[in-house]
D-alanyl-D-alanine carboxypeptidase
Amino acid sequence: MGAVVRQALAGFAGVFRLSSGFALAAITAAALMLAAAPPASANSKYAGIVLDAKTGKVLYEDSADAPRYPASLTKMMTLYLVFEALESGRISKNSRITFSRNAAAEPPTKLGVPAGQSIVVEQAIHALVTRSANDVSTAVAEFIGGSEAKFAAMMTNKARQLGMSSTTFKNAHGLPNSAQKTTARDMARLGIALREHFPQYYSYFSTRSFTYGGRRINTHNNLLGRVTGVDGIKTGYIRASGFNLVSSVSTGGKSIVAVVMGGRTARSRDAHMVNLIQRTLPKASTGGDKILIARGAATQTVAAAMLPRSAPVPADRPEEVPVTAYAEEQGSAAGATAFAEAAAPRPQAELDPVSTASTAMEGWVIQVASMPSEDEAKRRLAETSQHAPTVLANVTPFTEVFQMDGRTYYRARFGGFQGKSDAWRACETLKKKNVACYAVEN
């Protein structure tokens, strides 16, 4: 294992831009995770593939045709249809998208546009690629398709045109739906299609932040600006899928698209992606680009190596929750210490449990407790909300279930912060009120 870790660290040092303060922390975290984590094949949700974006050659694959839930990778197809509508002239970047009650009511992560109000198409694009906004996804679906169901049918039809034979879409955002499925190979194909078909719009995937309503909204894609050559594309998470990521890399005349699905945490997913980039990029071609995916006839023209194999319906259901130990999620002894602090017993307040988000949230969150029952976790959230109503006014409480040492616990968390600094400031405020708290990136 020591040799493996040393080799991986060498790769990280070569791939990460050392001018960023992120590099040293990433290398250290990677060492801890690689030393403790089981191989990817031991994770039943894992799937991965790396394609040479110039030739279509498979540079790496593991369970690439196994059925998986796309989560917010779904928004790649949502954006494909937006770009298609822009290119055809049916809409413009300044077209206004009005939010219905249905769109405005979507759970986080969201932009928070009230029903009846609107944003322009370009704002919607930025919100989808950075914040992965579920409310914006539904508003876009209704705007272009007339209804969410009709837009989902358009998405599936487009998937077939692109040769994504193992993919079915039922919504535009990727929130849990047992019939919404894909494969790592299909997601890689979609990533290449976005690059090939819409070079004039592809740079949107490199957006690291944008401003809306006076707020700066940062991307969920931690590799942008931190890993040499990474220019997009999309993150995703629901409980049934684990942490997903599609990355596009172009550097030194080489170009690849890589997919990681089923990561146990955002950190381990990112670390694995960087490792895949380091391992496969040297094998990529420096020749001229080939057209790998022709519009409307993809299954006949796509490179043979990219063709899918048949795949059964996913065995895991979206409602199921991944079993993961907290120390593994943190990847450090400090995480275990924070867990002990947040799990410390406190008097139970006589409050009704709060209404929580129906799915765990991406980005920076804060944890205030870990309880043996969901009701206790919800009560802790309600109690904490009373302690600091101002600092928690614009974030969303939610619970996450996990197991450790054969016992089930429920994390009490708040999500929807704009970034690390916002989450840390919220925790500092709570600690001053004698509320145990720590911030973590989901």
Notes: The chain is about 35% helix and 20% strand.
